[in-house]
């Protein structure tokens, strides 16, 4: 079969269980596509064909023996931020270029236990800091829709791999938008779960009070399958929550769009820099949901202007603390011929970290230092609480809140935005992480340059089922999620 990469996760699962094709055939199909097409997209940092084929053979044995799970034998790619035993985990940084984790992240452990086959690790911004995936020390990844454009970031490799059909689905992480924005730039569906829904154990830490992992795929249905595997409490992550996990697949039609109240924040649609095409496509998608029975309710989110400054204090503060462990002594990159211990620390860190990471360590260290701590860090935490309260108040009157995922479509590679310009591009995603809420991106059309546009729906705590269900029904009534970039149509 030459078109296995066009099948949805449900179709792949059916095909495998009915022995229409084997996991080995499916895995070889993807490995062939990666070998041929990925040199153009550059989504993978590491491809692991031997391990993938061994896992595929084990999956085929389980399928034959009748002890397979719903997803046994289906391949996936992991963002290179998830620790993988025996496979390099770099987080896009030179400082971890030689790092092989002695253990698997809980998410990886769970995908393995579910019988999923790991194709390899995919590219990302260094330590997940960025919105283009260009800050990776291995270089930029291309957007499958236009190879001279970025796939977004920081989970840009995950998005590009799925959009080019080089993996059926992928894991990502979202600290301030890193699942939703690349999903938006690449025409995919991506879910950022409630903080604490998915274990952070074994995910290289960026900003621990904001980091959360989630699925990136073509459709809400495909995302639901991966959520069923990765969600749940983990004793190894004290911030993961002991709360029953929904069956996200079974709930795909569980929320009625009829009567659904969708909040439209006035402030969001008046942001300077909101592209006219993005605005138009998002409004069209909301009109469609209205036709399906939803009610659009104008709401106020008065803290909108505070999102960017608040996040860009708290996230760098936590990053400066998390990244202090990379000292050239314990693991990772070490400079050549250090003169003494101070020289070892200084040069290992200044040679090992890229410019954006260094910028954030400096900002974060400053914000946490005695004398400035109250003025910056404590104040930002107080504003964070106000942002959360703003959302909770809104959810008294609406079920979900709609927004663009990003004010623009994908940037050109090398556009060289200033840090401030880049940070302002995160306006629609950051508050969700500051408040710990779940949110989803879904593709809703294209701009004048044929680049994908994304709609974001933000839900109340633990509303992952509801978000997936709304988007699933939207996708039953539209076909944006079935559109494929030309490069994905190519056969290997
Ligand atoms: N673009 C944001 C940042 O640079 C978000 C990144 C993320 O979610 N990991 O921090």
Structure description:
The protein has 492 residues and is an alpha/beta fold. The protein is 38% helix and 12% strand. It has 16 helices and eleven strands. The protein has helices at residues 9-17, 23-41, 49-65, 106-113, 156-163, 180-185, 220-230, 276-291, 307-322, 341-352, 355-368, 374-394, 419-424, 430-435, 464-476, 486-489; strands at residues 44-47, 75-79, 117-122, 170-173, 189-192, 213-217, 261-265, 295-299, 400-404, 439-446, 452-459. The strands form two sheets. The chain has an eight-stranded mixed sheet with strand order 4-6-5-10-11-9-7-8, sandwiched between helices. It has a three-stranded mixed sheet with strand order 1-3-2, with helices on both faces. Helix 2 (23-41) packs antiparallel against helix 3. The protein is globular. The model has no long low-confidence stretch (mean pLDDT 97). The chain binds glutamine. The site of glutamine (GLN) has 13 residues, from loops.
Largest sheet: 8 strands, mixed
Continuous helix count: 16
Rg over alpha carbons: 21 Å
How many beta strands in the DSSP annotation? 11
Low-confidence stretches: none
Helix and strand string, N-terminal first?
HHEHEHEHEHEEHEHEHHHHEHHEEHH
* Distance between the amino and carboxyl termini: 11 Å
Strand percentage lies at 5-15%
